[in-house]
């Protein structure tokens, strides 16, 4: 049964909770620059994540670890200039919050003040509880992130599905309830079994947004370069490609090259 979609002139953290209560799914994509963010926002996407995945798709790093706080702020500033409707959430990068709650707060404040973003996202549960509380007590909205946490990739040693074993699944459920209790407004669940993700979503009142977490959660997020087919060599099971821009862009670049080489471009009509 379809659910009537409410029109939101501006999406807020409260809007997302309302969407969950009303049974409306939440659409979330990444963006890292002004031009892309303007298109994503104009398409009516609810949440834009300025993800530390910029380390991969924008800078070409193997992992998300190398990206710095200054670089995340730069990307967030570019995105915010384009936005009229979407809620903009910014990842706190690796090393900016894990070890020291005071440093976590300083990092979150810098993102909020210098970029104008609406919220921050942190990876982890009980182990970063004090950092989360410090940021939340300062009035900064926080989105959690559980399951596969890419900033911990060297600990995991693999990007495989998380929480398939009972002990890890129980910890994930416990962490989700903890994040809700201390005040997070939403949680991203990455690469966990669909049944477990549904259980988590049904056990808490804040939205759960999945990536590789099945359809029983409250919304979905993808990396925009992946769903547009720009990162054509990346083919995880959870990814649906909505375009093949790698092919289309390659054709366009080749056509430009050929037209320049053949002196077809610019034509008489394209000159002053």
Instruction: Kindly identify the CATH topology of the largest domain.
Output: TIM Barrel
The oligomeric status of these chains comes to single chain
**First-last Cα distance:** 58 Å
Q: Share of helix among residues?
A: 40-55%
* Rounded average pLDDT: 94
Describe, in plain words, how this protein is organized in 3D.
This protein is of the alpha/beta class. It folds into 2 domains: about 230 residues, Phosphoenolpyruvate-binding domains (TIM Barrel, Alpha-Beta Barrel); about 30 residues, no CATH class. The chain has 11 helices and 8 strands. The protein has an 8-stranded parallel beta barrel with strand order 1-2-3-4-5-6-7-8, surrounded by 7 helices. Strand 4, helix 6 and strand 5 form a beta-alpha-beta unit. The longest helix is centred in the middle third of the chain and has 17 residues. The protein is globular, with a radius of gyration of 20 Å.
Give the topology, please.
Blueprint lengths: L12 H10 L3 E5 L3 H9 L4 E4 L3 H4 L11 H12 L6 E5 L9 H15 L3 E3 L7 H9 L4 E6 L5 H4 L9 H17 L3 E5 L3 H10 L4 E4 L7 E4 L1 H4 L17 H17 L11
Helix pairs in contact: 2-4, 4-5, 5-6, 8-9
